[in-house]
Design goal:
It is built from twelve helices and twelve strands. It folds into two domains: about 240 residues, Rossmann fold (3-Layer(aba) Sandwich), CATH 3.40.50.1100; about 120 residues, Rossmann fold. Strand 9, helix 8 and strand 10 form a beta-alpha-beta unit. It is about 40% helix and about 15% strand. The protein has about 350 residues and is α/β, with parallel strands linked by helices. The strands form three sheets. A six-stranded mixed β-sheet has the order 3-4-12-9-10-11, sandwiched between helices. The chain has a four-stranded parallel β-sheet with strand order 7-6-5-8. The termini are far apart. The N terminus is likely disordered.
C-alpha cells in the first residue's frame, strides 16, 4: 500500500490511499446482503408535500447494524487476503461505524483486529460501536483530545498516525501480518464500491419507471459521494447528487471529495470532477462532528414518527433534516428524490439511551 504523505498533498486534504493499480481488476468479497431495499416513503412524502420520495436502505446491509462502510470493506478485504494478512488495523472515532464493521469483518474471516480510536477526554457514556468492538475482543488503543483546545485537536491526526505505527510494529514483533484498512474505507476500492452501489440503485429506479431523479446523502470523507458521482458519469445517467457535509467546511469537503473521486476516475477513464460540479453544502454542520443541530433533531424525530426510521445526529439526521429544508425551499422536489440511508443506527441508539 502506498500513502501520499502530508508533504505531497494540499493542506487539510485527507491522505489518498492507493492499493490497487489501474490495470488491476477489483474484486468483491461478499459481506453485505445486496441489493438493499429501495422503499417509497409515503407518509413522510405526504408530510413534506413531496411525491415520489424514496429511501435506499444501506442501514440494512446485514452485519451488526448495517452502514455504508460494509460495502467498502467488500472491496478492501480481498487485498488483505491476497497479502495473507491475519490482522486488520484501522482508525476511527469512538462512535465509528467503520471501526466496528472492520472489527466484525475480521472476526468473521477468522482474523484479528486492532483499532485506534480517537475522541474527547470528557467523561460520557460509552458508544455502542465501542462496546461492540470490546465484545469482539479486539485490541483497542485510544487517543484523546481536549474538547475546547484547538491545539490538541490540530495535533490529533499526527498522534493517531504515531499510535498506528507503534501498534503495527508491536503486532509484527508478535508475529502478526497486518493490513491497514484506510479510515472510513476512503481509498480506490472503497470508493469504487459505490460506483457499483449506484448501478444497483439505478436499476431499481429504472424498474420503478424513473430515469431522472435526485439523490441526497450525508458526506463525511467524501468517498461515498465520490463513488456515486462516478457511477452517474459512468452510466451517463440524468441523476443529480446532493451532499450534506456533516463536519468539514468547504472548500475542504469538496476538495477531499474530488481527491476521493480522482483515483476512481483514473481507474474508469472518467473526467475528474471540478469544484462547481459537486453539490455539497456545509450549512448544516452546526457545532461540529456528531454534534446535534435543531435541523438534525427535527429530521430524526420526523423520520421516526412518520416512517419508523432510526437516524443518528452524526450523519443521517443532518442529511434528512437538510433534505426537509431543501424540499421546503424548492431546491428538491421537482423530480423523484432518493434519500440514501448510510447507516449509523448505533449512534441513533446511543442518542436514545442518553438521559434527558
Amino acid at each position: 500500500m502506498i500513502l501520499i504523505t502530508t508533504a505531497a498533498r494540499p493542506q487539510n486534504i485527507m491522505p489518498v490511499f492507493i492499493m490497487s493499480s489501474k490495470n488491476q481488476k477489483l474484486t468483491r468479497f461478499k459481506l453485505a446482503e445486496l441489493p438493499t431495499h429501495l422503499t417509497q416513503l409515503k407518509t413522510l412524502g405526504r408530510h413534506l408535500k413531496s411525491n415520489n420520495l424514496y429511501i435506499k436502505r444501506d442501514d440494512l446491509l446485514g452485519r451488526v447494524l448495517g452502514g455504508n462502510k460494509l460495502r467498502k470493506l467488500e472491496y478492501i478485504i480481498p487485498l488483505a487476503q491476497k497479502q495473507k494478512a491475519d490482522t486488520l488495523i484501522t482508525t476511527g472515532s469512538f462512535e465509528s461505524n467503520h471501526a466496528a464493521l472492520t472489527a466484525t469483518a475480521a472476526k468473521m474471516l477468522g482474523m484479528d483486529a486492532a483499532i485506534v480510536l480517537m475522541g474527547t477526554d470528557e467523561p460520557g457514556q460509552k458508544p455502542l460501536n465501542e462496546k461492540i468492538q470490546e465484545q469482539l475482543d479486539v485490541e483497542i488503543k485510544k487517543v484523546y483530545y481536549k474538547e475546547n483546545d484547538p491545539q490538541s485537536r490540530s495535533a490529533l491526526s499526527e498522534r493517531v498516525a504515531e499510535q498506528v505505527k507503534k501498534l503495527t510494529e508491536d503486532l509484527k514483533k508478535r508475529g502478526k501480518k497486518t493490513f491497514f484498512v484506510p479510515p472510513a474505507g476512503c481509498c480506490l476500492e472503497g470508493t469504487y464500491s459505490f460506483v457499483k452501489a449506484f448501478e444497483e440503485l439505478n436499476e431499481q429506479m429504472q424498474n420503478s419507471g424513473y430515469n431522472s431523479y435526485d439523490i441526497i446523502l450525508a458526506v463525511g470523507t467524501g468517498s461515498t459521494f465520490a463513488g456515486l458521482w462516478c457511477g452517474t458519469k459512468k452510466a451517463n445517467a440524468d441523476v443529480k447528487i446532493y451532499g450534506i457535509s456533516i463536519a468539514r467546511k468547504n472548500p475542504r469537503c469538496i476538495n477531499e471529495t474530488i481527491q476521493a473521486a480522482k483515483r476512481v476516475c483514473e481507474y474508469l477513464n472518467l473526467p475528474v470532477p471540478k469544484e462547481n460540479e459537486l453539490n455539497i453544502t456545509d450549512k448544516y454542520i452546526g457545532p461540529g462532528y456528531a454534534k446535534p443541530t435543531e435541523s438534525s433533531q427535527q429530521g430524526i424525530e420526523t423520520a421516526l414518527k412518520t416512517e419508523g426510521l432510526l437516524l443518528d445526529h452524526t450523519y443521517t439526521g443532518k442529511a434528512l433534516g437538510a433534505m426537509m429544508n431543501m424540499i421546503k425551499e424548492g431546491v428538491l422536489g421537482s423530480r423523484p428524490i432518493v434519500f440514501w440511508h448510510t447507516g449509523g443506527v448505533p449512534g441513533a441508539v446511543d442518542a436514545l439511551a442518553k438521559p434527558g
